[in-house]
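Entry 0007
Protein: FAD-binding PCMH-type domain-containing protein
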Amino acid sequence: MKHFKKLINVDKEKRLFTAEGGIMISELNELLRDRGYALSVLGSISELTLAGVICTGTHGTGIQFGNLASSVTEIELMTSDGEIRTLSKEADGDVFRAAAVSLGCLGVILKVTAKCEEAFNLKQNSYGANIKDLLENLDVHLKASDHFRFMWYPHTDQCVTFHTRRTQEAVRRSHSWFWDYLIGFYLLEFLLWISTWFKGFVPLINRTYSRINSKPSEFIDVSYKVFNFNCLFRQYVMEWAIPIEKTQLALFELKNWIGNSGFEAHSPVEVRFVRGDDMLLSPANGRDVCYVNIIMYRPYNKLVAHAEYWEAFKQIMLRNDGRPHWAKDHLMTAKELRPLYPKWDTFCRIRQKMDPKGMFMNENLKNTLSYS
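Output (structure tokens):
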């Protein structure tokens, strides 16, 4: 796919672009910007292919915005028998909805046509908040900006909120090498490395960095430079989508588990919000969702125990009608996943028909889909 990386066309009248599936989102951002356009929402990083972010249901945040696959209007893919098919939502119904979030098992995505909008700048305001106050006023926060997210620091009651809005104002950056890199990267990694021997140090690290990051800040930049942010160093991550009305219950349950178990959970727990869609295997199928992402860093690539945390988080998410993010750890088998997706059997029938010999199945996909 490394040679399938062209932006083929931008239809300015319909605000649609067509690009090859292997193009990196980072390249696509620049090419669209040069033509005066942009993607409406992005995830945290852009060093991913267009086909990859679509077929895994990759998302950003903003309750009026779906995941990236929800903006797709047409997909061209090569099936296991070499046939090249062009699928659209209007003409192909469930087959298109299966291909949009397909986990890569229906065929090779050659081209994608998706929605875009005129290029825009974003203003991001961040500040500290108490988790109880924030969750009790969640609806207010969700409506207060285009793209709202927050980060909770385990072992504290502190969150950092991020309100991001479209703006006509000029770019105005406020990055600091001292705070963003020396303190926010190099010192943090060193302290987390020390904490692998002195585990009781983790709550102190979380409290310290929650205070540092709670200082109010504001900056303006082109859209993709605000949507994307530095994910720091190597890490284990697990993320689940729950119905948005379960946000408060699930987060307090997680907070209580961390407090009662004594597990030294790294910070932050990132919380984002996504509009529902109709893609068969999308975690947001049929409902607006809250995505909750937990993390355990690997400072200097050191292995860090996390299995207990992962299992507890999984069980909390399942109790709150959660569905896992396909591109991250989820520890789920097909038998466990099937009840979570109303259209699971429909997807599996389409997969079997489009790839009867299992050419696009690997060991992970066999474990994920083999039940059906």
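Curator remark: Residues 177-195 form the longest helix (19 residues). The chain has a mean pLDDT of 95.
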